[in-house]
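note to self — DONT lose this again. spent like an hour looking for the file last time. sequence + predicted structure for the chain T wanted, 78 res
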Amino acid sequence: MTGKVEFYRHQLGDGEAQSWRRVLDTLVDAGVARSRSDALAWCVRLTGEHADAWLAELRDALRRVEEVRSQGPAGSGE
């Protein structure tokens, strides 16, 4: 188990990993899931169900950012 913990600490950092554990623990405490493992599966399932809509919103937001940038002042590299 220690190997997995060290891997996640390396990937996320201690603070970020702690934050995710709090999310999972909250889902367990609220009765949404029976364990952290179940809570993680719930999060993955939820993300999968909404991924297309969330990605579409993200693409729309990026398009709006590009529109605003194109209307802004020219860069100083001219």
